[in-house]
Amino acid sequence: MSFSRTLQQKLQPIWRKNHSHPFVTGMGDGTLEKEAFRYFMIQDYLYLKEYARLFAMGTMKARTLKTMGEFADLLQSTLNEEMQLHRDYSARLDITEEELEQAEAAPVTLAYTRYMLHEGQNGGLAELTAALLPCMWSYAEIGRDLSRIPGAVEHELYGEWIRTYSDPDFLKLADWCIDLLDELAEGKPQHELDKLEEIFLTTTKFEYLFWDMAYYHKNWPV
């Protein structure tokens, strides 16, 4: 089994918690409260701004033109497709452009993005890829799984989100990142592999915290 698949299997108890979080299942059956989704979309927009910086770092750290191009494609997809999804949703969720652009990152959003950027900037391309992979990989799986629920892709509010993350093009990007981590991990000593596992585990946990933050509207104390 490849390095990335070994990590995913090893972390299945935590990995499955992300898939079974009530925020995620609520999108699938249409019972998620609109206000929770609204809060999520604002925070996820802020998250994607920082996530895009990781892809820019990846372009810089890549050693081949092919890998540079793939990271450039990921950057383009994030800035012009994923973030456009959030802008499109804004009108339906009564989010003004000013509110979206001036929103404050919640504690989990801030901690998650700062952790990824720290590992991406201070480590090599393998550490950067390990940091960003759980988000992309789990979204691809969640989108695929939710799309199989009868009526989910047609839901008037959540259907567009599900269609976006179950799209074959998004799944291909996730598969490319999985393969890249395997390639970068090949031949590394155990202590470096342990570090990659630690990063992958940490951002997998942050994924759960992000869903939880949105579901319960967790923010800074007032």
Question: How is this structure best described in words?
Answer:
- The protein is an all-alpha fold and 222 residues long.
- 79% of the residues lie in helices and 0% in strands.
- The longest helix has 28 residues.
- The radius of gyration is 17 Å and the shape is globular.
Topology:
Layout: H1 3-10, H2 12-19, H3 22-29, H4 34-61, H5 65-92, H6 97-102, H7 107-122, H8 125-147, H9 159-165, H10 168-185, H11 190-215
Features:
222 residues, mainly alpha
Q: Name the average pLDDT.
A: 95
Order of helices and strands: HHHHHHHHHHH
Uncertain stretches:
none
SS elements, strand count: 0
Helix content: over 70%
SS field, number of helical segments = 11
Query: By helix and strand content, what is the structural category?
Result: mainly alpha
Alpha carbon gap, first and last residue: 48 Å
Largest sheet: none
Q: Specify Rg, calculated over alpha carbons.
A: 17 Å
Q: What portion of the residues fall into strands of 2 or more residues?
A: under 5%
Shape: globular
